[in-house]
Amino acid sequence: MKNNIREIRKHLKLSQDEIAKYCGVSRQTVNAIENAKYDPTLHLAFKLASVLQVTVNELFIFEEN
After folding, report:
1. How far apart are CA 17 and CA 28, in angstroms?
2. DSSP calls for 8-52
3. Is the pLDDT of residue 19 over 90?
4. Distance, CA of 23 to CA of 33 (rounded, Å)
5. Are 3 and 61 in contact (CB under 8 A)?
6. Which of 39, 41, 31 is nearest to 9 (CA)?
7. In the chain, what are the domains?
8. CA–CA separation, 10 vs 47, rounded Å?
9. What pLDDT sits at residue 1?
10. Residue 13 region, left (φ>0) first, then alpha (ψ -120 to 50), else beta?
11. CB 6, CB 15: distance < 8 Å
12. pLDDT of the residue at 61
């Protein structure tokens, strides 16, 4: 699953550490999600979307296999 987290985060001038603190996860988790090495739980996906002021659909790009 691809995502737009990095682009949106940079547009809002937020660091990975700031996003992580707002979401209650580590900076490494945010990095892994941005690099498509980890798929967040639905709960975390909604937290990320809320912090980044977008919808989950705007944040993630769902691809069919």
Report:
1. 9
2. HHHHTT--HHHHHHHHTS-HHHHHHHHTTS-PPPHHHHHHHHHHT
3. yes
4. 13
5. yes
6. 31
7. 2-53 (1.10.260.40)
8. 17
9. 77
10. left
11. no
12. 82
Q: Which single residue is written with the structure tokens 């069919």? A: 64
Residue 10 scores a pLDDT above 70:
yes
Token pair for 64: 């069919």
Largest Cα separation within the chain, whole Å, is 33
pLDDT band with cut points at 50, 70 and 90 for residue 65? low
Q: Measure the CA–CA gap between 20 and 63, rounded to whole angstroms.
A: 25
Q: Are 2 and 63 in contact (CB under 8 A)?
A: yes
Q: Give the Cα-Cα-Cα angle 19, 41, 38 (nearest 5 degrees).
A: 75
Token pair belonging to 41: 């739980």
